[in-house]
Amino acid sequence: QLVSALHNLTRHVVYCGLTRAEDILSLFPENFHQNLKNLLTKIILENISAWRNEAQASQISLPRLVDMDWRVDIKTSSDSIIRMAVPTCLLQLKIQEDAALCGNNPVVSALTVELSKETLDTMLEGLGRIRDQLSAVANK
Amino acid sequence: MGLLNFTRDPVPEAVSGDMHNLNQLSAQQFSALTEVLFRFLTEPKEVERFLAQLSDFASMNKISLGPLKNIVKSILLVPNGALKRNLSSEQVKADFIALGLSEEKASYFAEQWKVNSPTLTRLAVGQTLMINQLIDMEWKFGVTAGSSELEKVGSIFLQLKLVIKKGSQLENVYVELTLPQFYSFLHEMERVKTSLESFS
């Protein structure tokens, strides 16, 4: 019962985003033990940002990118052309499935994708547009 | 027959007979036939159109379709081999002459080859094997307003949808990135572009 009550208290504080000692103190009933109240508040305050970050990290979401690597290869030969020198990009994305579904054992899968130069140029155009939109939002 | 550029294998016997028949065509007829052939080579998926055009050519010039198809098969051996081996137009011309085609017609074909080879090469490169080719990318970004854990959040996320060709099927992959990840991703992709350009 005690653990459950503590849990509810901390969840409430994190949920409401309380950051000031007064706000937390005001949650306790009138006749609550003074020192215990102060101690609990102090501990909660110390942990609050860590708890918020963790809550955000374990939010439901689409699969998240955790890492990315790339490599440029030169294709020198194929069944359609015996001699060529065509550069191509291999991009590996490490993707973690929804943290909320996986609990403590996140499933990370690696996806390797090949991009031709043309595809990369188009992709960069798209990414540039995203960057412009982000700056526009930031500057509002 | 001397060593040919476009192939190392022996050429089928029928080819010299077909070249002889080709030589009987007038310059205009040969030019019209060449045009039909190159239109097919640059758009290899248009098989029906190609066959229809061949059939029209046959009836307009009073040639039977069967022999015409054999002639076309023989002619096509050269550009197909030439594409694989990056042959120059001089080499293509030399091969046709070696096969028995008249110098005039061989020159003409080689000239058309020169004009069309950038397109044909690009097509051949495009047909080269690609692993999990990225076909398309869509995105949206927004703000997480709240969640069951946190009443007010206000964090920006970027969602990417990548369309990937796996074998002959398309697969959609959804990925979410934070803003710092996005900027880092953009930076890396720009480095890839620089790298690709230095090798082109």
Automatic annotation (TrEMBL), chain A:
PROSITE patterns reported in the protein's UniProt record: COMM (PS51269)
Domain COMM: 64-138
Pfam family, one: COMMD9_HN
InterPro entries (UniProt xref): COMM (IPR017920), COMMD9 (IPR037360), COMMD9_N (IPR048676)
UniProt name for this protein: COMD9 protein
Native source organism of the sequence: Pachyramphus minor
Automatic annotation (TrEMBL), chain B:
CDD domains (UniProt xref): Commd7 (cd04755)
GO MF annotations, alphabetized: NF-kappaB binding
GO annotation, biological process: negative regulation of DNA-templated transcription; tumor necrosis factor-mediated signaling pathway
Residue ranges annotated for the COMM domain, each copy included: 133-200
InterPro entries: COMM, COMMD4/6/7/8, COMMD7
Any Pfam family hit: COMM_HN
Protein name as annotated: COMD7 protein
